[in-house]
Design goal:
The complex is a heterodimer. Chain A is of the alpha+beta class. Chain A contains three helices and three strands, in the order αααβββ. Chain A has helices at residues 2-25, 46-54, 56-64, and strands spanning 79-82, 87-89, 98-104. In chain A, strands 1-2 form a two-stranded antiparallel sheet. The radius of gyration of chain A is 19 Å and the shape is extended. By secondary structure, chain B is an alpha+beta fold. Helices cover 32% and strands 15% of the residues of chain B. Chain B has helices spanning 2-7, 39-53, 67-72, 97-111, and strands spanning 13-19, 59-61, 79-82, 88-92. In chain B, the strands form two sheets. A two-stranded parallel ribbon of chain B has the order 1-2. Mean pLDDT of chain B is 84; it is low at 125-130. Classes of the chains: A alpha+beta, B alpha+beta. At the A-B interface, α1, α2, α3, β1 and β3 of A face β1, α2, β2, α3 and β3 of B.
Chain lengths: 107, 130
């Protein structure tokens, strides 16, 4: 049993990146990780999620993304408040720090 | 990302998370979550996210009109790495910590070649991205 599990883990590692690349090509964007990147289908509504990622609106976002602030371009100034009410102004990082900005949600 | 924050804690790197719309509200694993009805509702979910993920990274919340999120691409799990000059060095439509680690290692090593940093994060076995 342990041997099978190890074999599956190794297969996942080998297949994860190509599977992720293919999924991006066809317009579905599952998170990377276990299950060759398709672990999230266990808790998502497959029909609703497939319909969402295949919708023109969402495909439009992914199609537009490459044209938005590509590497080498200037990042726009962003000023937003944190959950604690502290103002984060990305211009405060200029000349001081590199920064990583990422989006996320609970679901 | 918390691992990355720890790794680069003594270097000039800041991390900011932006809480955005719930892409899978009401689905199988998230029955009790719904689309945001007000800014207070959205802020409540953002605080819940911090609790669930035990985040120390500051989480900013876009307005209900999603103006900032729209400007940056409107994707649920995207990432931008911006250098000290305000220039985008890396961005992806899906956050992969490995790639962010690689870019940050390159940037901070360039800042101080006497203290080189190497990519160490491997997310192939992680199941969550934030």
């Amino acid at each position: 049993m342990d041997g099978l599990r190890r074999l599956w883990k190794r297969a996942e590692r080998v297949l994860a990146k190509p599977a992720f690349a293919v999924s991006q090509m066809i317009g579905i964007h599952p998170p990377p990780g276990p299950g060759i990147g398709f672990w999230s289908w266990r808790y998502l509504d497959i029909v609703k999620t497939t319909r969402m990622v295949m919708s023109k609106r969402v495909k439009g976002y992914y199609a537009r993304f490459p044209g938005l602030f590509p590497p080498g371009s200037e990042f726009p100034r962003i000023v937003l408040e944190t959950t604690e009410g502290v103002v984060v102004d990305t211009s405060q990082f200029l000349g001081q720090k590199h920064f990583v900005l990422f989006t996320g949600a609970i679901t | 990302m918390e691992q990355l924050k720890e790794k680069y804690a003594d270097r000039d790197v800041a991390f900011v998370a932006m809480y955005v719309r719930e892409p899978h509200a009401g689905e199988r694993g998230f029955r009790h979550y719904s689309d945001h009805e007000s800014y207070a509702h959205k802020l409540g979910y953002a605080k819940e996210l911090i609790e669930i993920k035990d985040l120390s990274i500051p989480v900013v919340v876009d307005g209900m009109d999603q103006t900032t999120h729209e400007t940056l691409g409107n994707l649920p799990n995207m990432v931008y790495v911006v250098d000290k000059d305000g220039i985008v060095r890396h961005r992806d439509n899906w956050l992969l910590a490995d790639d962010v680690d690689e870019m940050l290692a390159e940037l901070v090593t360039r800042d101080d070649p006497s203290r080189p940093v190497h990519k160490t994060i491997d997310t192939s076995e992680l199941s969550a991205s934030i």
